[in-house]
């Protein structure tokens, strides 16, 4: 109502367009009594102002003030008491927390120990797994090795069996072998006997042959007459040589008119006889060389009568030299099983009583002299002895010799006729049967021309040559003659020729002389001279008177010869057979010996193999035993380890059980304590609430009382105190929550916090809400499950509760109340706050740090 009387209606908090349907205006009654000052009290419910007379109000107010002051004092006392109790409860809670911390620490330690044990156990389990893996691997490996060894042993056993079978066979075959050995031994004995017999026979054969040769004569003279040359025929020369009895070795020389001179030689060769015929008779002499006799074959005669032809021959028509060597090699080859021969050749020339080595590659000024090497054996030191193994080498040596001879003179024929060409073949033989060694030599001499000096009208050097030739030939004749007549003195040293031939002339040595003659009548004198010389050499003077005598003698000799030949033939035959038999026996004996040796070697080899195999077998068995021992040891170690692991597991389980049981026990005890504490505090708060409610009810009753405002203030103060208590309990919960080291403590504190909050909230709420305490009986596992959620939720609850309180404060908009609240807070903090804050903040931070540290260690 404005001053001008207008009524203004203002709608506040109304939506839309309100319509005023009617207004009731009541006129206030006029007060006639002395005006009593009224004061108004505002209704809390309807906000209507209730008029109270000031006097009454003052009385009421004093009375109620007195009452309320008393009540406030009582309540303050109670509050202080409760605060003390709360403080004690809080202290006990703190100690319980400390204990809880200790328990948690212990639990942590135990958990850490458990974890470390778990880790060690895992390590051990890993080790065990590794060991078992290795063991399995080893087991597989050793099993494979054992199998392999078993296989090897099987194979070895098989081989051993086979070898033993073979050994048995060998042992079985030993009697047969012994028989064979016995047979071989008898054969060897037979062979030895045969050898002895053979050598005896050979000796006999040699002796017989030698006797035969000797019967023929150690000095034999063969006469060879060349055919008339074309020149001689053209010159009208006539033949003066008769060969009617040539087969009997008789030769007739027509000396002129009807006179005829006969000569007798060992063999007479007509011009029709070729080189083969000549050598056929000379070959036994050659054979004597291989038997160890010295032999000397030389050709004597006038120049141009065919000495060189007979000795050397031509390439198409080889002479005695070549054929002799060929024959030597052939016989040596035939006798190669019983004899070994080494043949060496020297080619010399004696010219003017000087020896010249025709095989020397370089000419030497040194004179070659004849020396006595051993008894009955002469040697020319420094002479070349060319060793020849086959006939081709012989030919090259002979060719070299003849070439060297040609070098010495301008006219080959002339020179050759004035020097003696001497081919010496040295034979070393070894009898393989009896080991007998022989050394023999064969001289093949192409003598210089024997023509007489008187006929050669020469002077000076030529004369000297002729004299030397004549002297040497005469000396040769003298030596042979002396030998034939068995003279006591043999004049070997009269010439170089005879000196060189000393060991091959006389004694057992054989001498063969080819006396070469010309059939021409123009050479009659020389022919007769040569034939005379040859006859002298032969030691028989042949004449017409002696001819007969000679014939009867000859007949006798012939018969003897024939007989000897027959004998020698039959002996040769038997010898050949014996040799063949011997060879067969030797080859058989060799074969048997070889087989015997082979069998012995085989037996030895098999024995060695058996020994080796048994050694290997033993070794493998040893290895197997060692392996099985090792396996057993490993198995024992494994079982021990397994046992240890089981024991450790058992211990761990026991420890876990005991520790967890003790912890659970402790936790339960602590929970019970906490519950008791909470129940105490809540029962106290409930009683306080009751009192407050009662006070409120009384206040309502005494609404008229003037001191109701003060009462309200008191109530507010009480409410603040309660809030402080609530704050205190919240701080307690914070302190508990601030150390989230273990889940058990967190759970407990999270469980406590809402209860405190609920209890604090329950101040302004119906009492029935305090039934949340029943939740304290929630299971431990549920608390653990909700832990994290509640941690966050508790903080929100604190905030909400404080905000609720704030809204209350703000709604009342009572500044002094804030100051009071501040004061009470200070009062509380002065007594409990610093410790609380310090502890809560420190514990909280410490808890976070510890939790993080433990997380790191455990991870
Ligand atoms: P020497 O050596 O005695 O002086 P040779 O051997 O030089 O004599 O012979 C002289 C010649 O006579 C040569 O031409 C040779 O061929 C020939 N001659 C010698 N003997 C015979 C023979 N038995 N048959 C054929 N020709 C021969
Ligand atoms: Mg000649």
Describe this structure in words.
- This protein has 859 residues and is of the alpha/beta class.
- The chain has 17 helices and 16 strands.
- The protein has helices spanning 54-216, 230-234, 275-290, 307-311, 320-334, 391-407, 412-417, 461-484, 496-500, 524-538, 544-701, 708-737, 743-761, 780-785, 787-812, 815-831, 833-858; strands spanning 38-42, 49-53, 219-225, 241-242, 250-256, 259-264, 267-269, 295-301, 339-351, 354-357, 371-374, 377-379, 386-388, 420-431, 437-446, 510-517.
- Strands 3, 7, 8, 9, 10, 13, 14, 15 and 16 form a 9-stranded mixed sheet that branches.
- α12 (708-737) crosses α16 and α13 (743-761) packs parallel to α15.
- 28% of the residues are buried.
- The structure holds adenosine-5'-diphosphate (ADP) and magnesium ion.
Topology:
Elements: E1 38-42, E2 49-53, H1 54-216, E3 219-225, H2 230-234, E4 241-242, E5 250-256, E6 259-264, E7 267-269, H3 275-290, E8 295-301, H4 307-311, H5 320-334, E9 339-351, E10 354-357, E11 371-374, E12 377-379, E13 386-388, H6 391-407, H7 412-417, E14 420-431, E15 437-446, H8 461-484, H9 496-500, E16 510-517, H10 524-538, H11 544-701, H12 708-737, H13 743-761, H14 780-785, H15 787-812, H16 815-831, H17 833-858
Parallel strand pairs: 3-7, 3-16, 8-15, 8-16
Antiparallel strand pairs: 1-2, 4-5, 5-6, 9-10, 9-13, 9-14, 11-12, 14-15
The structure holds adenosine-5'-diphosphate and magnesium ion.
The site of magnesium ion has 5 residues, from helix 4 and helix 7.
């Amino acid at each position: 109502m404005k001053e001008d009387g207008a009524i203004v209606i203002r709608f506040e908090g109304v939506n839309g367009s309100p319509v005023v349907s009617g207004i009731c205006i009541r006129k206030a009654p006029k007060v006639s009594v002395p005006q009593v000052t009224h004061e108004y009290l505002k209704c809390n419910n309807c906000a209507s102002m209730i008029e109270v007379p000031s006097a009454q109000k003052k009385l009421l107010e004093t009375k109620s003030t007195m009452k309320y002051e008393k009540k406030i004092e009582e309540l303050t006392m109670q509050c202080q008491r409760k605060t003390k109790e709360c403080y004690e409860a809080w202290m006990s809670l703190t100690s319980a927390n400390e204990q809880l911390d200790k328990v948690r620490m212990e639990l942590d330690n135990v958990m850490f120990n458990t974890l470390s044990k778990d880790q060690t156990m895992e390590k051990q389990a890993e080790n065990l797994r590794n060991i078992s893996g290795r063991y399995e691997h080893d087991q597989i490996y050793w099993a494979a090795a054992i199998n392999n060894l078993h296989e090897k042993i099987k194979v070895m056993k098989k081989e051993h069996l086979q070898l033993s079978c073979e050994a048995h066979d060998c042992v079985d075959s030993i009697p047969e072998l012994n028989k064979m050995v016995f047979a071989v031994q008898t054969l060897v004995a037979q062979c030895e006997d045969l050898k002895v017999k053979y050598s005896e026979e050979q000796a006999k054969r040699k002796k017989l042959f030698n006797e035969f040769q000797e019967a023929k004569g150690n000095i034999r003279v063969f006469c060879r007459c060349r055919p008339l040359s074309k020149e001689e025929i053209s010159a009208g020369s006539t033949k003066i040589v008769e060969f009617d009895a040539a087969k009997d070795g008789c030769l007739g020389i027509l000396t002129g008119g009807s006179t005829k001179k006969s000569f007798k030689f060992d063999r007479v060769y007509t011009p029709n006889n070729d080189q083969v015929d000549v050598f056929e008779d000379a070959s036994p002499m050659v054979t004597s060389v291989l038997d160890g006799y010295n032999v000397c074959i030389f050709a004597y005669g006038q120049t141009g009568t065919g000495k060189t032809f007979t000795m050397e021959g031509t390439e198409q028509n080889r002479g005695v030299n070549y054929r002799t060597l060929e024959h030597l090699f052939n016989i040596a080859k035939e006798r190669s099983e019983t004899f070994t021969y080494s043949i060496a050749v020297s080619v010399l020339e004696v010219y003017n009583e000087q020896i010249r080595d025709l095989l020397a590659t370089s000419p030497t000024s040194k004179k070659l002299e004849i020396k006595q090497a051993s008894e009955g054996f002469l040697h020319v030191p420094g002479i070349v002895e060319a060793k020849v193994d086959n006939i081709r080498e012989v030919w090259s040596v002979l060719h070299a010799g003849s070439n060297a001879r040609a070098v010495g003179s301008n006219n080959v024929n002339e020179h050759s006729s004035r020097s003696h060409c001497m081919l010496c073949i040295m034979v070393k033989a070894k009898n393989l049967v009896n080991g007998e060694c022989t050394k023999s030599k064969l001289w093949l001499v192409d003598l210089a021309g024997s023509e007489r000096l008187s006929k050669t009208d020469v002077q000076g050097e030529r004369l000297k040559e002729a004299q030397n030739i004549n002297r040497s030939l005469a000396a040769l004749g003298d030596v042979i003659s002396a030998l034939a007549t068995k003279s006591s003195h043999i004049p070997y040293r009269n010439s170089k020729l005879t000196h060189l031939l000393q060991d091959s002339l006389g004694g057992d040595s054989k001498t063969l002389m080819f006396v070469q003659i010309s059939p021409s009548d123009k050479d009659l004198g020389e022919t007769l001279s040569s034939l005379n010389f040859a006859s002298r050499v032969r030691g028989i003077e042949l004449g017409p008177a002696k001819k007969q005598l000679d014939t009867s003698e000859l007949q006798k000799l012939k018969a003897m010869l024939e007989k000897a030949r027959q004998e020698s033939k039959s002996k040769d035959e038997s010898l050949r057979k014996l040799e063949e038999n011997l060879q067969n026996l030797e080859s058989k004996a060799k074969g048997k010996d070889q087989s015997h040796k082979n069998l012995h070697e085989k037996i030895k080899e098999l024995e060695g193999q058996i020994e080796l195999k048994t050694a290997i077998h033993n070794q493998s068995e040893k290895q197997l035993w060692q392996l099985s021992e090792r396996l057993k040891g490993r198995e024992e170690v494994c079982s021990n380890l397994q046992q240890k692991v089981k024991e450790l597991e058992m211990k761990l389980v026991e420890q876990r059980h005991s520790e967890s049981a003790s912890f659970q026990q402790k936790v339960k005890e602590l929970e019970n304590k906490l519950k008791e504490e909470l129940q105490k505090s809540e029962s106290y708060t409930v009683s306080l609430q009751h009192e407050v409610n009662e006070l409120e009810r009384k206040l309502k009753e005494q609404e008229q009382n003037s001191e109701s405002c003060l009462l309200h203030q008191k109530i507010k103060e009480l409410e603040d105190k309660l809030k402080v208590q609530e704050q205190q309990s919240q701080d307690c919960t914070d302190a508990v929550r601030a150390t989230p080291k273990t889940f058990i403590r967190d759970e407990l504190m999270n469980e406590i916090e809402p209860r405190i909050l609920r209890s604090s909230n329950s101040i302004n709420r119906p009492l029935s809400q305090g039934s949340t305490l029943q939740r304290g009986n929630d299971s431990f596992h549920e608390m653990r499950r909700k832990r994290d959620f509640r941690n966050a939720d508790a903080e929100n609850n604190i905030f909400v509760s404080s905000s609720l309180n704030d809204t209350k404060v703000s709604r009342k908009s009572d500044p002094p109340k804030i100051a009071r609240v501040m004061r009470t807070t200070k009062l509380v903090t002065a007594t409990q706050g610093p410790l609380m804050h310090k502890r809560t903040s420190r514990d909280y931070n410490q808890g976070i740090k510890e939790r993080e540290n433990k997380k790191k260690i455990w991870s």
